[in-house]
Amino acid sequence: MSASKPPCILVVDDDLDLLAFLAKMLARKGGYEAVTARCAEEALDKAQAEPPAAVLTDIKMPGMGGLAFLQRIRTLDPAVTTVLMTGHGTIEMAVQALKDGAYDFVEKPFDNERILRALDRAVERTRLMRENARLQDRLSGQEHDHGFVGRSRRLQQTLELLRRVARSNVTVLIRGESGTGKELAAKALHRLSSRASRPMVTVNCPALPEHILESELFGYRKGAFTGADRDKTGLFAEADGSTILLDEIADIPVSVQTKLLRVLQEKEVQPLGQNRTFGVDVRVIASTNQDLEAKIRRGEFREDLFYRLKVMTVTMPNLAAIASDIPLLAQHFLDRYSREYGREPLECSTEALQSLMQHSWPGNVRELQNTINRGVLLCDQGVIEPADLWEEMEKPPALGAAMDLPDDIAAASLARLSYQQAKNALLHRFNAAYLSQALRASGGNVTAAARDCGMERQAFQRLLRRHNIDSRTYRDG
Ligand SMILES: Nc1ncnc2c1ncn2[C@@H]1O[C@H](COP(=O)(O)OP(=O)(O)OP(=O)(O)O)[C@@H](O)[C@H]1O
Ligand SMILES: [Mg+2]
């Protein structure tokens, strides 16, 4: 943060007049920037958007009260310092709050000087706590251990959020389009956490059929079902003391969702065929590129599980949102692949870089990475040219020639159609061929096909409907 920006105080109270008064007073007399919130929920959102230097909160509020809020904000950001405002009859609560980690309290009616002094100390304490955490990170060599490349503001904000939530134990939901670095983010969360010394357990949810997913996650006792000829430890037990990543969580069946909810609520696991449960200490990270809200509406995803998961949501930016990082990312992948293939260091020509900047990247960083990989393989000099990056196919095809036109719109008859009709006819045919080919390659698996095409599953499915294509006809057997 720049030195000129005044420290930000998050002020929480359900009394609007008081909020306005405090904001003005803190700005005028304390030189602070006040961010106000009318309830704890709003305050948590705002603290997530920008970490405050200190929090000044009422202790008695409708909805989530001051004590619960204190706990939540401390999980979110262990370094932030909280000062409570107490009214008549809340002294006992204030004492409890001090035990729970509040730093100080001020009594209503206020003495402005007293508030300012308390906040000055609180801000200083937060600064020291953050500095200390940074030093510890550096000492353990984790400063750049997140694996992300890029200096854009949007990416840096995301990394800052990852760093902050890493230290807590909250469940994190990582959202984002395909190829935006969701798995990389999960690894970073684990590596930056106090659990880093133990390996993270990753579960690729859609890869496992329903009954296997359940027994893999929770384990089973010998004899629990036919074929269970010995006890099996589940992945949750394996991840005890560490982190579990439930990758592509949107695809897990509702029965497994129900069991999962129990684990998140009770922190207990019950293996199949066993009556007793046992406790586990596992930090859960879930990722998805799907529209969970739509799945909830269709009854395919449990709403209560969704709310459990999304307490802390990290949304990975798509490549368009961090387009200024494309040159840096391209160079990063160039270095990586030229090293991997034992080549001299390579660089991009200006034209190649321009073409990279102009591309729309539906497959995000992963697509960029693959494009550079191919470029390094194809390039026979020290400089990558556009021709090394793009296949012929990706250039606009010569009308008719590349399209293998059907009789109804054979090249000769194209001219007789209006421009719009000709375009629609070609587009329809292209879409149908493209979608069928993708489904054939994935054996009728819509999620996999969408991913291979660099598309959101929902968008892919919309296209299927529009072109009257039934994915089931592509399933094996
Ligand atoms: N900012 C970045 N810097 C360097 N590498 C990145 C960055 N973002 C993503 N990557 C790389 O891009 C590739 C795709 O990332 P990742 O697998 O984490 O994406 P994802 O969102 O999980 O994709 P999918 O939805 O397809 O599973 C990985 O090789 C990852 O290391
Ligand atoms: Mg992934």
Descriptive report:
It is built from 20 helices and 14 strands. It has helices spanning about 15-30, 40-50, 65-75, 90-100, 110-140, 155-165, 180-190, 210-220, 235-240, 255-265, 290-295, 305-310, 325-340, 350-360, 365-380, 385-390, 410-415, 420-440, 445-450, 455-465; strands at about 10, 35, 55-60, 80-85, 105, 170-175, 200-205, 245, 270, 280, 285-290, 310-315, 345-350, 385. The protein has a five-stranded parallel beta sheet with strand order 2-1-3-4-5, with helices on both faces. A five-stranded parallel beta sheet has the order 7-8-11-6-12. The radius of gyration is 27 Å and the shape is globular. It is α/β, with parallel strands linked by helices. The chain folds into four domains: about 10-140, Response regulator (Rossmann fold, 3-Layer(aba) Sandwich); about 155-315, P-loop containing nucleotide triphosphate hydrolases (Rossmann fold, 3-Layer(aba) Sandwich); about 320-395, Helicase, Ruva Protein, domain 3; about 405-475, Arc Repressor Mutant, subunit A (Orthogonal Bundle), CATH 1.10.10. Mean pLDDT is about 85; it is low at about 395-405 and about 405-415. Bound molecules: adenosine-5'-triphosphate and magnesium ion. Adenosine-5'-triphosphate binds near residues 176, 182 and 451.
